[in-house]
Design goal:
α1 packs across α3 and α4 packs antiparallel against α5. 35% of the residues lie in helices and 27% in strands. The chain is built from eleven helices and twelve strands.
Length: 351
């Protein structure tokens, strides 16, 4: 039970009761609200006062819905019977539907770049955007395993990168990788010193449960992708970024995030190429899922079809390996030779 509160808090407590205890399927009557005011806030009032405060909330623009029931009442002054309406079944109309919140929560659960404690805290905040009935249906999410990364700097990293990208400033950071001790270790140079990365940041993007920084490493002509959850000790530099379109690898084109994500399906970097894949027809959905709706099909038979795709070389090879023997690269010849060589190396490894 809450400590006794001043009467001026009545309207805010009514709003909180509606927000927590009601939704479309669980409306509250004025009598229900009166009882909860007494049991939860130690405030005694009557139904007329509750209705007056709800009317004030409605006039102020709060999302409160209710049912209207027509009735006849006698005017005490004139004695005439007049039409009137009874308002009942009040409920708070939340900004997010339960299905929308469920989708957001599932997105957090399926992501792998957020540390366990931060993910759990975000889920709890999302739960509070609906009524208590929604929270009771998602209790199992608190049992998610603590198997996530432990870089608590990730939100700090996102804030720093957001500022750097907005202000077109370079950043410096260390980059980590896991060792056999299951701990993150900073990359080192040939001298055994911690390697500092000077980066031109352009965009951040989520892909396959991870959060990436799309950038250019100072002194190199091509683009790079770095996992944001593996970045530590980041700081903004005073130096301006090299414009994206000035990079040799971009061909003087501006950055289109949608195009970039379509052509880097596994977030590998490198040269893009057009390729033809001979695909088992049962895998057409997988091709479209990975390469998007720009895929063109030809030479269809009862069992296979040729898919014409464009992406970076490593992504095309990875896709073909992932879906072997249902996917075969047929062109260009140099890409066919590359995957043949890799397959041969794999065969030797397992000989």
């Amino acid at each position: 039970m809450y400590a006794k509160q001043p009467k001026k808090m009545l309207i805010m407590n009514i709003l909180e009761i509606l927000r927590v205890h009601s939704d479309e399927y669980h409306p509250l009557s004025q009598a229900d609200i009166v009882k909860k005011l007494e049991s939860e806030y130690d405030m005694k009032t009557d139904r007329k006062t509750v209705k007056r405060n709800i009317d004030n909330l409605l006039d102020s623009g709060f999302n409160i819905e209710y049912s209207v029931t027509p009735r006849k009442i006698k005017n005490t002054e004139t004695g005439a019977v007049e039409d009137s309406n009874i308002h009942s079944d009040y409920y708070y109309l939340h900004d997010f539907t339960d299905s929308e919140l469920r989708l957001l929560i599932d997105s957090l659960l399926f992501s792998t770049h957020l540390p366990y404690n931060q993910c759990k805290a975000l889920v709890e905040k999302l739960e509070k955007l609906s009524s208590k009935y929604f929270r009771s249906r998602v209790k199992h999410i608190h049992a998610m395993p603590n198997l996530r990364p432990h870089n608590d700097q990730i939100f700090y990293n996102v804030d720093i990168l957001d500022d750097a990208i907005s202000n077109k400033r370079q950043v410096s950071f260390n980059y980590g990788e896991y060792g056999t001790d299951k701990k993150m270790h900073k990359r080192k140079n040939k001298k055994g010193e911690e390697k500092e990365f000077i980066i031109n940041p352009y965009q951040m993007a989520a892909k396959d449960g991870n959060y990436y920084l799309i950038c250019n490493r100072e002194g190199y002509p091509n683009l790079s992708n770095y996992r944001i959850d593996r970045i530590t000790d980041m700081s903004i530099l005073d130096t301006k970024v090299t414009p994206f379109e000035k990079l040799e690898a971009t061909g003087n084109n501006k950055l289109s995030l949608s195009d970039y994500m379509k052509s880097h399906i596994y977030m590998f970097t490198g040269k893009q190429t057009k390729a033809t894949l001979q695909v088992d027809k049962g895998r057409i959905s997988d091709v479209i899922d990975r390469f998007g709706m720009d895929v063109k099909f030809s030479e269809e038979t009862e069992e296979t079809v040729c898919a014409h795709v464009k992406a970076d070389i490593l992504s095309i090879m990875q896709f073909a390996k992932n879906y072997s023997p249902y996917v075969k690269i047929t062109s260009p010849p140099e890409l066919v030779d590359m995957i043949k060589k890799e397959i041969e190396e794999m065969r030797k490894l397992y000989k």
